[in-house]
Write a structure and sequence with these properties.
Oligomer: single chain
Strand content: 5-15%
Shape: elongated
Strand order of the largest sheet: 4-5-6-7-8
CATH topology of the largest domain: Trna Endonuclease, Chain: A, domain 1
Number of helices: 12
Largest sheet: 5 strands, mixed
Structural class: alpha/beta
Order of helices and strands: HEHHHEEHHHHHEEEHEHEH
CATH class of the largest domain: Alpha Beta
Number of domains: 2
Helix content: 40-55%
């Protein structure tokens, strides 16, 4: 099963705290609610894309935030949740589980949100309802992570389009810039652009130490078609000719499965395709501008005793 949306956490939190009128530490609530929702051990390890917190804890936190906004719960001290008097009365007077309309009343910040009209087609209606629920019950963290994922996908596509318009020589230099940004080479001068006619299949050389005693050899191919095993084998031969044991083969397209199988067997060649290259460019700020955005998010661990 997938981890439920945050609205599904509201009723279990309300019931657990209702059974503990003195309140409970947040770690205890997290685990009790996860058990009630059937979230297994592997799912409890799944983090937000930002790697800042387990998803189930994040959604439990937002569900409790909505209960606090409704005046039904509180955080009387660090890392501790407790129903208010109104919350205890509410839990006792409302049967379990809470109706969907009641959860929506408690949790949706904007009461003017309306679900899209449904079709007479039952299958379409079911899918449309699931999509609408996904949007409706997305926490602000979910929305932010989704927007960031979309921006990364869009930027990756633009990067690969720009690379496709560039010259092969520009691509070879770009590859060296990315590897240097990743920390390879004692300085930028330690990265040598070699690519030219008769280069023996080597487009760049990185000296890993100041004396140049240990080197990584690079091949960069700005291709549209898949790179097959024959190209990787030729690169391996170029490494053997130089008695080298470290090589990185980077392409703007992709590698065939047989090319990857060959590289896996020889072990000394690392393959990087266009998708991974775009990710590295974004991560290390090569050819992209990174906008610093301050997104406030409470450090819940700080408040747990």
């Amino acid at each position: 099963m997938s981890i439920p949306t945050y609205d599904k956490f509201v009723d279990p939190i309300l019931r657990f705290l209702g059974g503990h009128p003195e309140g409970a530490p947040t770690p205890v609530v997290y685990e009790a609610v996860a058990n009630a929702l059937g979230i297994d051990e592997n799912e409890r390890l799944v983090l937000l894309p930002s790697k800042t917190q387990p998803i189930y804890k994040n959604r439990a936190g937002w569900a409790h935030d909505r209960l606090k906004r409704a005046g039904l719960s509180s955080s009387p001290k660090r890392g501790y949740w407790k129903l208010t008097d109104n919350g205890i009365e509410y839990a006792q007077s409302h049967p379990t589980p809470l109706a969907d309309d009641e959860i929506r009343r408690l949790t949706v910040v904007d009461p003017n949100i309306r679900l899209p009209p449904v079709s007479e087609n039952a299958d379409y209606e079911s899918a449309a309802q699931r999509d609408a629920d996904t949007v409706l019950w997305a926490t602000p963290d979910d929305q932010l992570e989704e927007a960031l994922s979309e921006l990364k996908l869009w930027t990756a596509e633009e990067l690969l389009e720009a690379i496709g318009r560039a010259s092969p020589e520009f691509f070879e230099k770009l590859v060296l810039d990315v590897l240097h940004a990743m920390g390879y080479g004692a300085s930028r001068d330690a990265l040598q652009h070699v690519g030219r006619s008769g280069d023996g299949g080597i487009d760049g050389i990185i000296s890993l130490d100041r004396l140049g005693l240990e080197k990584v050899f690079i091949q960069a191919k700005r291709w549209q078609n898949h790179v097959g095993p024959e190209s990787v084998q030729a690169f391996c031969g170029a490494l053997d000719a130089r008695r080298a044991n470290k090589g990185v083969f980077i392409t703007s397209s992709s590698f065939t499965s047989s090319a990857r199988e060959f590289a896996g067997r020889v072990e000394k060649i690392r393959l990087i395709d266009g998708g991974e290259l775009a990710e590295l460019m974004m991560e290390f700020g090569v050819g992209v501008s990174l906008k610093p955005v301050k997104v406030p998010s409470i450090d819940r661990d700080y408040f747990e005793e």
